[in-house]
Amino acid sequence: MPVKAVVFEQIKKFMGWCPACKKMAQQTKQPCDFANVTPISGKTGNIPEFRTSNVIFPANSNLVFVLFYIGISLLLRYPGDITLFLAGIFLLNTCYYVLFLKTFEASVLADSFGVHLQVFRLKNLEIPYEEIESVASYKHEKRSKEMSILLGIGGIAICGFVIYMVVVEGEWKPLLLLISLFPFLLLIERKQKTRLLDLNTQLYIKIRHKKWYEWTPYYSLITDEASAAELKSFIERHL
Predict the structure, then answer these.
(1) Tally of domains in the chain
(2) Which segments in the chain show pLDDT lower than 70?
(3) What domain range includes position 84?
(4) Closest to 204 in 3D by CA, of 167, 231, 239, 164
């Protein structure tokens, strides 16, 4: 073998050249047919979504109020023994507190499939985009001074009625029930103020097909202005 050829072979080996690489490269160039190149919905990464837990559902408040009213009515009507009545008060306040804590788990998630209302009427509800007709947001009206005065007058009237029942009628159950509610209401109010902030916008989601047990075709929620605007924009992009 000539000297130049030997030197050239030594240089190729020194540079890492492999005599079988060319053959292997030619064998790997085989035609490939992909049977399915369409991405599967829901399994691709970086799917945009919107989520907020700074939200309350008026439907939850109405439902909890109805359940609490039924409990109070039954408690004032039937138990005559003070031991049973006190046990009923404890059970009522415990159940009501658990229900109210459940409403604090409320949240909204909007993704590529639809709008998910977590703990709406104490259960999870999914609204597909094809079921949504429109979405609108309005400034949530805070309690006016006139309404606050009326509520104050109503509270004073209730307290006066309870005192009358105790002094004149000798009925002690309403007074015990009223006293038991004060610590609970203060605790609930403090928890609501520390967890929920700037609830100044109400969002209405109108559906196309109202269920037979629904009063209106609207699902409403109250949240802050920024979350309401982003959620409204997110829904409108999918309509």
Answers:
(1) 1
(2) 1-47, 79, 143-147, 151
(3) 50-151+195-238
(4) 231
